[in-house]
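debug: dumping io for the single-chain case to check the tokenizer round-trip. Nothing else runs in this session.
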Amino acid sequence: MPRTSERGGPRTRARILEVANRLFMENGYDAVTVAQVAREAGVSSVTVFNHFPRKEDLFLDRAGDVLDLLHRAVADREPGSAVVDSLEAAALALIDDGNALTGYQERSLGFLRTVAASAALQARARAIRGELEVALRDELVADPAFDGDARLVAALVVAGYATLFVENASRLLDGEPSSDVAADHRLRLSRLFDALRHGLADGA
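debug: decoded output
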């Protein structure tokens, strides 16, 4: 196919993502190469890697959104408000917005099936979880208004939410109605943050 300009910046990135997602979901992640994605998108493999350092990042591309969410929840919270309260509000907003990061949106079934079929994607997802924990810890350490245990809060928040996401996705893949999963998610999310709120020091 004709080559497109490789200077498109965000447009090039969006085109690469569109092509990669289609190829991965049609053929399976492990069966598609970066070279195939590049060829279909009309760019070079070098351009693909300039935008996405790892092949896995072509599919698991929402980590940046989560990093932004964590940053805003900590840095932009109201003066005097607790971090756990702000993080809970951010998680509840994902529900209200119908965000795929809840793990139970029916439109995400193709994505979830693709991840479930690839050990490489699952390994990268676990690595991203670790990166998010470190990022949240660093946000809390840098926040002069936070005087709790940054490492513990970050570990519990990220692990707790990741557990809910994975269980939501598994239930959806098993055929449970998304409405049932959604109702349980809101309830369990409340339990998670209540446990964090009452089990951590006041500084959290």
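debug: round-trip ok. The chain has two domains: 10-55, 61-202.
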